[in-house]
Design goal:
Blueprint: H1 2-28, E1 38-39, H2 44-58, H3 61-66, E2 68-76, E3 79-81, H4 84-89, H5 91-101, E4 102-114, E5 117-130, E6 133-148, E7 151-160
Parallel strand pairs: 1-4, 2-7
Antiparallel strand pairs: 2-3, 4-5, 5-6, 6-7
């Protein structure tokens, strides 16, 4: 329980940091060239996040599972999954079906690497039709990664829209 509370606090602090930085940076450069909305995406953790998204979209359960730490926490829609196996056996397949049916445009993606930890924060626009329902919304994603035995693993995910 303490790990979950610490993870939530960590994600909140990082979110506040990125929001503050983004607002300050946009205010400072409003009269100058617009800042890039894609920062750090070529880093190793950024590539892991990209591979995870591609695996989900392609229905590649093996690759998607491999990129998750065994004890990953995934927060989505008011629920939580507390391990990679729990996610792989429950919500992953429905996420794959959903992502295969819709279009998603990445609006911004920032990855901040801090030694053996990294935070990926992104915003995307989702459109399409799923189960006869028209979709048109913006989604937010926060992913926390850790370097474990020389590999970057996803340890926390928070999805919201």
């Amino acid at each position: 329980m303490i790990k979950v509370k610490l993870a939530i606090i960590f994600v909140y602090v990082i979110s506040v940091f990125f929001t503050s930085f983004s607002i300050a940076h946009e205010t400072k450069s409003s009269s100058v060239e617009q800042p890039s909305r894609f920062i750090g995406i070529q880093s190793a953790p950024g590539q892991v996040v990209r591979q995870f998204h591609q695996a989900l979209k392609a229905g590649d359960k093996i690759t998607a599972r491999k990129l998750l730490a065994d004890d990953v926490l995934i927060f989505e829609g008011g629920g939580v999954e507390r391990s990679a196996d729990e996610y792989a056996h429950h919500h992953m397949l429905s996420d794959m079906k959903y992502l295969a049916a819709i279009d998603s445009e990445l609006l911004e993606h920032n990855v901040k690497v801090m030694a053996n930890s990294a935070v990926s924060m992104s915003r995307s626009k989702t459109t399409g039709t799923y189960k006869n329902k028209a979709l048109n919304y913006q989604a937010m994603e926060t992913i926390v990664l850790e370097k474990q035995l020389d590999e970057w693993k996803i340890v926390r995910i928070h999805w919201s829209n």
